[in-house]
Write a structure and sequence with these properties.
There is one protein chain. By secondary structure, the chain is of the alpha+beta class. The protein is built from 3 helices and 6 strands, in the order E-E-H-H-H-E-E-E-E. A hairpin with a 4-residue loop joins strand 3 (75-81) and strand 4. Helix 1 crosses helix 3 (57-70) and helix 2 packs antiparallel against helix 3.
Length: 113
Amino acid sequence: MTNKRYGRVGDSPIIGAGNYADNETVAVSATGSGEMFIRTLTAFNIAAQVKYQKLPLEQAAQNALDEVKSINGSGGVIVLDKSGNYTMSFNSEGMYRGTIGNDGKPLVAIYKD
């Protein structure tokens, strides 16, 4: 983030907020308004929705990002399950992201399609 406060603590290094992994559910990596991701435990929130509500990755990610947005936060997540399914969801204008499909072709994007 540009113009961030000196000494700002972000979400990325905090387990449950900016990252979370569980062999039974998903692995999540987040970026964005760190404090809002911390307050909503975004990464763990997604894993819990997948585990307990059996929600699809996309829906769980969107629900968590809606909660972040409700307190004026923005950002995105990359979510991967044990079968290789993934979503790269965000509620900001764009998010740098990329993947390589089963066909070996890379996909790189910033903005929504």
